């Protein structure tokens, strides 16, 4: 037994973390362009602090790894690995530089069209995230980001242009990346800047509801334009374990899991569950329902559930939780049974199998793992090679856990795209040294380097994994 025929092996990126070319060919300024490297990054991402100037910080995304000019070379390398799919995202401001123009930017549309055609040349199916933490700054200034319902029309217009222009080139789409990140990184996830004294939960729920309605409308539109289109939602996943068998810890783990699943419940089931309504009510907030929102959500649920998985998490009812770790922005109690990465992210392959089972049991829809990987410091040896056995070991164990979930537990899995198939800028820290890829990019934390691409040892290993449909995982 193994993965089904046609399983979609590949890798994943995001526009703001790989493309660069910030103002080329008419591209406008987005929220992700104002995320600097350094100590201000987290405060800006959470909406606690903000800047509007781009001349007094270093912004790594402005050049990133220059995929904008290297995409043919990079896709050829993906083709050499045997990729079946490549997950990438659209930079909204390449298509509509301000976000609310009447007509799209043809040069931006052509850029992505050329990428998709290049993918098809190698038999690679594009998996396109319409919004991967990307909001035009003009719309943030004009509307306050996703707190304003006007954003829905802007986003639907963007999606309509994409669906029509790339009809026949793109079949698999995701609406919003890690939509639950609104509760943790709201400026990045929704262009949200908090006002002094406001109810922050209300602001975040308002943004989330508008994104949920937009996601449903876009799902409807995609199916109308081409019934073959497959639309997914996307969750920052990782199951919570109770710190102890104290019932209070177990209850806290249930509550923490629900906070992650809350918006995916709406996208998959078509309505807000009762626990979510109570969670919102207890925080003196309310969902800004407009006429027909209930029907829009109910009638336009997603076709599949995609998610990122880097680590499990630990819940404690004790307010003095002790030592904390970070994993993809989420704070968690340290799990003493797990190893950690160079950046303190805990490594839990079995947690992937657990998470897959929980999500599949919950929704009974096909799953797609669209982010999973190890951020590590890679060293170029004297002979020019990069011996990243630690990455191979990490991915080996996670793919084996994935295989167990499919073969032993009956989970329906469509595909798997490792995060950062080519080295890219870290969303959380803005670093280049936190490398994920099978392909090394000569670029450092300060923006120096030649952009030269170098295959790591993991390149040939993953090529073999794909060629054997996951049967040969040996190093």
TrEMBL record:
- GO molecular function per UniProt: 6-phospho-beta-glucosidase activity
The UniProt record lists the keyword Hydrolase? yes
Q: Can the keyword Hydrolase be found in this entry's annotation?
A: yes
| SUPFAM superfamilies to which the protein is assigned, alphabetical | (Trans)glycosidases (SSF51445)
Family annotation (InterPro entries): GH (IPR017853), GH_1_N_CS (IPR033132), Glyco_hydro_1 (IPR001360), Glyco_hydro_1_AS (IPR018120)
Active-site residues are 371
Its EC number(s): 3.2.1.86
Mind telling me what this protein is named?
A: 6-phospho-beta-glucosidase
Species in which this protein is naturally found? Catenibacterium faecis
């Amino acid at each position: 037994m193994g993965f089904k025929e046609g399983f979609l092996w590949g890798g994943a990126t995001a526009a703001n973390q790989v493309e660069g070319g910030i103002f080329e060919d008419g591209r406008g300024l987005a929220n992700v362009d104002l995320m600097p490297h350094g100590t201000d990054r987290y405060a800006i991402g959470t909406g606690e602090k903000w800047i509007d100037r781009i001349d007094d910080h270093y912004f790594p995304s402005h050049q990133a790894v220059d995929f904008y000019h290297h995409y043919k070379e990079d896709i050829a390398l993906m083709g050499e690995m045997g990729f079946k799919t490549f997950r990438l995202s659209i930079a909204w401001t390449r298509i509509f530089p301000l976000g609310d123009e009447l007509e799209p930017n043809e040069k931006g549309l052509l850029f992505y069209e050329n990428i998709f055609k290049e993918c098809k040349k190698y038999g690679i199916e594009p998996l396109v995230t319409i919004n991967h933490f990307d909001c035009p700054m003009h719309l943030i200034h004009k509307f306050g980001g996703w707190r304003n319902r006007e954003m829905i029309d802007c986003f639907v217009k963007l999606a309509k242009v994409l669906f029509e222009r790339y009809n026949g080139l793109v079949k698999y789409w995701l609406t919003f990346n890690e939509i639950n990140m609104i509760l943790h990184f709201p400026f990045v996830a929704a262009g949200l800047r908090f006002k002094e004294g406001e109810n922050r939960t209300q602001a975040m729920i308002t943004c989330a509801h508008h994104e949920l309605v937009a996601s449903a409308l876009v799902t409807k539109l995609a199916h109308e334009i081409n019934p073959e289109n497959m639309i997914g939602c996307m969750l920052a996943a990782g199951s919570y374990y109770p710190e102890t068998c104290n019932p209070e810890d177990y209850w806290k783990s249930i509550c923490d899991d629900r906070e992650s699943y809350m918006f995916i419940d709406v996208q998959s089931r078509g309505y807000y569950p009762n626990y979510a309504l109570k969670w919102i009510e207890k925080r003196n907030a309310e969902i800004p329902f407009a006429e027909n929102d209930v029907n829009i959500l109910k009638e336009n649920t997603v076709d599949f559930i995609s998610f990122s998985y880097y680590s499990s998490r630990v819940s404690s009812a004790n307010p003095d939780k002790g030592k904390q770790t970070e994993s993809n922005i989420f704070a968690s109690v340290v799990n003493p049974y797990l190893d950690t990465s160079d950046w303190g992210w805990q490594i839990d392959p079995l947690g992937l199998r657990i998470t897959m089972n929980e999500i599949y049991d919950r929704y009974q829809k096909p799953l797609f793992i669209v982010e999973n990987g190890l951020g590590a410091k890679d060293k170029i040896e004297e002979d020019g090679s990069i011996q990243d056995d630690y990455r191979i070991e990490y991915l080996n164990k996670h793919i084996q856990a994935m295989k167990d979930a499919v073969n032993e537990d009956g989970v329906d899995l469509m595909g798997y795209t490792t995060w950062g198939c080519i080295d890219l800028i870290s969303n959380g820290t803005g670093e280049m040294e936190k490398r994920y890829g099978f392909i090394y990019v000569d670029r450092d934390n300060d923006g120096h380097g030649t952009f030269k691409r170098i295959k790591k040892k993991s390149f040939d290993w993953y090529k073999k994994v794909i060629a054997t449909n996951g049967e040969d995982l040996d190093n």
